[in-house]
Recover the amino acids of this structure.
């Protein structure tokens, strides 16, 4: 089974070729620099950039995989959720290709695809060169493996979303909770902006926090003790705003900036980790997974590792290169759906910008 998958839900144009559970190519063209001067993703600019990039990125994915369009068994794309005019580019391109090739089109929920990214291994370069079974770009999926780790609780945490999902079995999951206002990544980005840091501020805060004291300042841990699995980060952002209003001089001291970064990061991470672990315990699972851009955060990775070890859970984190948006995860899920006949091929299906995971 060979599939082409496209992802254009936000600010990454990505195409991947997947065959029999292995990723033959995964090309990601990021627009981060384009949007940086605006301090956030500008949908109109994102869509134009996707339009410019979708053909070369798709061609590059096919070339790297050494696959011609005629060899494809299906074409998949993210159908939602995401920015409407950005989604349109990938979806319509995939539908047109599938129609022209007389092959099925598979529309994918972006969040459901994130559930698969922790199961994609990036193999070391040495293995890629020596072992014929390890494909050139080094990604592979241990296809038989992930069902052993079900049920599990999965944290999806990015600039647009913060979700806790109970994965009961393949293609069978239930959303336990999500953010009622800002996403965790948005909280990193917006508090960073208040401190005058570059967009996206998440990675900058991560770096500065390394040499900061996480206990220097105390910021709220919203909904930490609530019994539900929901998150809220806008109050934390507001408290940082008032804190900086009342202590503007702190921003002139580089060590204090590092301390503020470490303290804000500690608040976000504590809530994410505590609520993930609590959900895992309540649902009686033995495994926890995490993906999405914020999963690149070193403190989050370390704290999840520590908490899972303490509680006897197996932890599967997406590799850093696959935490952010990519078409590989879209292709892996599409292949599962193709194998199980779990999709309806519609060449005229519309985008679903607000498609919530059930
Ligand atoms: O998944 P992603 O690429 O895109 C979506 O938002 O869908 O995630 C981007 C988000 C941004 O908010 C960015 O600041 C955050 O992930 N991020 C990080 C780190 N790397 C990326 N946040 C904290 N620490 C990081 N190292
Ligand atoms: Zn995403």
């Amino acid at each position: 089974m060979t599939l082409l998958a496209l992802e254009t839900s936000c600010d990454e144009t990505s195409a991947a070729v997947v065959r029999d559970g292995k990723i033959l190519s995964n090309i990601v063209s990021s627009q981060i620099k384009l949007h940086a001067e605006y301090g956030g993703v500008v949908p109109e600019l994102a869509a134009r950039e996707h339009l410019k990039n979708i053909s070369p990125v798709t061609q590059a994915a096919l070339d790297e995989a050494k696959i011609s369009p005629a060899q494809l068994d299906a074409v998949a794309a993210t159908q939602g959720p995401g920015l409407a005019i950005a989604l349109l580019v990938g979806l319509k391109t995939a539908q047109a290709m599938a129609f022209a090739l007389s092959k099925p089109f598979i529309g994918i929920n972006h969040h459901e695809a994130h559930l698969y990214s922790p199961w994609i291994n990036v193999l070391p370069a040495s293995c890629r060169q020596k072992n014929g079974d390890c494909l050139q770009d080094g990604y592979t999926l241990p296809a038989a493996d992930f069902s052993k780790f079900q049920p599990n609780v999965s944290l999806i945490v990015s600039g647009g979303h913060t979700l806790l999902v109970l994965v009961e079995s393949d293609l069978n999951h239930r959303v336990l909770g999500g953010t009622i206002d800002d996403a965790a990544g948005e909280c990193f980005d917006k508090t960073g902006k208040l401190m005058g840091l570059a967009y996206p501020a998440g990675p900058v805060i991560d770096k500065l926090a390394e040499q900061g004291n996480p206990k220097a300042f105390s910021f709220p841990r919203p909904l930490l003790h609530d019994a539900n699995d929901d998150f809220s980060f806008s109050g934390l952002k507001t408290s940082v705003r008032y804190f900086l209003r009342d202590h503007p001089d702190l921003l002139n001291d580089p060590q204090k900036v590092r301390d503020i970064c470490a303290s804000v990061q500690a608040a976000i991470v504590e809530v994410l980790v505590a609520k993930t672990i609590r959900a895992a315990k309540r649902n009686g699972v033995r495994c926890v997974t995490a993906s999405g851009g914020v999963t690149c955060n070193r403190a989050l990775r370390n704290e999840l590792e520590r908490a899972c070890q303490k509680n006897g859970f197996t932890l599967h984190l997406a590799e850093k290169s696959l935490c952010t948006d990519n078409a590989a995860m879209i292709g892996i899920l599409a292949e599962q759906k193709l194998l199980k006949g779990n999709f309806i091929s519609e060449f005229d299906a519309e985008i679903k910008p607000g498609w919530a995971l059930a």
Q: What stands out?
A: The chain has two domains: 2-122+322-340, 148-318. The two ends are 28 Å apart (CA to CA).
